[in-house]
Recover the amino acids of this structure.
């Protein structure tokens, strides 16, 4: 794999998080060069389609052997306008990993894992989030 460089202009954080540390907006993006033909799509599902849905999370939990990816699954327990809450077994080190589900024949990211606990929670993928991230990537 070839090395590449990114600078501050390639990093994005939600303005609400920068302003006041809003847990509802605890997400960011690092723009990388090139294209990834195998990436996951994002989708903003309505409350009724998210509630009680099974979601998957994969990441590198700090309580497992170093450099090993772990996958967990669990059910969404509640949703708000900007967050989803779910019962997956996660650990420190998984923040920023995708929370995804099978929807419309594809795996779709519906949240960005940010907080452990019982239940876990993630900023919810919304149309506003998608618009902001697309604008940033295209800039």
């Amino acid at each position: 794999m070839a090395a590449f460089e990114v600078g501050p202009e390639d990093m994005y954080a939600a303005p609400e998080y920068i302003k006041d540390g809003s847990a509802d907006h605890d997400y960011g993006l690092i723009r990388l060069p090139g294209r990834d033909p195998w990436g996951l799509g994002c989708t903003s599902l309505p409350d009724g389609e998210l509630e009680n849905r099974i979601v998957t999370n994969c990441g590198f939990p700090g309580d497992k052997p170093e450099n090993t990816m772990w996958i967990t699954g669990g059910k969404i327990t509640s949703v708000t306008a900007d967050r989803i809450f779910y019962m997956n077994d996660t650990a420190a080190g998984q923040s920023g990993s995708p929370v995804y589900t099978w929807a419309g024949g594809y795996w779709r990211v519906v949240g960005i894992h940010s907080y452990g606990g019982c239940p876990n929670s993630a900023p919810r993928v919304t149309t506003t989030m998608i618009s902001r991230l697309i604008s940033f990537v295209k800039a």
